[in-house]
Amino acid sequence: MAPILFGRLSAMAIRFEDVKPKIGARVVWDKREDLFTEEAAAVIRAKVEERTVLVFPQLNLSDEEQVQLTELIGPRQRMHVDKTTGEVLDIYQVTLDAKINPQPEYVLGTFFWHMDGITVDAPPSFATLLSCRRKAPKGGQTEFASTYAAYEGLPEAEKAELEGLRAVHSVKASLSHIADAIPQRDYDAVTKIGLVKEHPIVWTHQSGRKSMVVGTTADHIVGQSVPEGRATLVRLQEWAAQPDYSYRHEWQEGDFVVWDNTGAMHRVIPYDRNSGRMMHRTSIHGHESVA
Ligand code: OGA
Ligand code: MN
């Protein structure tokens, strides 16, 4: 091939293989450096929107490379502040190790279906990006459920019933399953993280596609009794989690996974506090509020 074509064709040096019919793609590349270009980033971003979850098997990113790739897909969102130094972090370390993470209870909330950044005063992150630095010997797989595919698959009558419904979200609700296990001295600080936010259950994106804003942050449905609303919210979670719409990632160390946080819930299969599991996380700004 003539060298003059290399620039134009560099994005073609990345290929994608679907993982399941409705969710997931694996990225295949020839040269690692081909991933770190503007063209590649645009192709990756479009693929994240199309397939919801992208897996880069054993890419083995350094923190600097993860930040660079996040910026290329961008815009990079820096949303974690070190509790002790007040410093804004480039990389958030997802771990249950209390020596590294002063608020492991908050990370325990990741054992339940959720979307990131749904209780803050900003559009939800477009994407979350995780590098597996150390996997757990047991558990620790991450599951993703496409709420685009799940909404699409609902019977028309149920779609119509959801139209116009709004749910109230909070971190406190997302921790309700584990409230009994949160030490009393941490309870207030942890459950007061974030805001109490109302969102429509059906999110009509600017693209015209519809997804659902569900997960354990959703506490109740506005205008319905708590039992009725919660039952619906739990049913929607179960619906989205069915195998046709979801994917479980079995991590290998070095894997890098990017998912569309605006069209998916995720959760992690429980792992031990002392398992050594360590994920390095970055985020990409959302450009659309839930509407
Ligand atoms: C998160 C999260 C999942 C995981 O960091 O927000 O949900 O597999 N992590 O650790
Ligand atoms: Mn999360």
Observed structural traits:
26% helix; disordered N terminus; 9 helices; globular; 291 residues; three-stranded antiparallel beta sheet; binds N-oxalylglycine; binds manganese (II) ion; alpha+beta
Describe this structure in words.
The protein has 291 residues and is of the alpha+beta class. The chain has one domain: Clavaminate synthase-like (Double-stranded beta-helix), CATH 3.60.130.10. Helices cover 26% and strands 26% of the residues. The protein has 9 helices and 18 strands. The chain has helices at 6-9, 38-51, 63-73, 104-108, 147-153, 156-162, 171-174, 184-191, 226-241; strands at residues 14-18, 25-29, 53-56, 76-77, 80-81, 88-89, 92-94, 127-134, 142-146, 166-169, 197-200, 202-204, 210-212, 218-221, 246-249, 256-260, 264-268, 278-284. Strands 1, 2, 3, 4, 7, 8, 16 and 18 form an 8-stranded mixed beta sheet that branches. Strands 15-9-17 form a 3-stranded antiparallel beta sheet. A hairpin with a 6-residue loop joins strand 5 and strand 6 (88-89). Helix 5 packs across helix 9. The longest helix has 16 residues, at 226-241. The protein is globular. The structure holds N-oxalylglycine (OGA) and manganese (II) ion (MN).
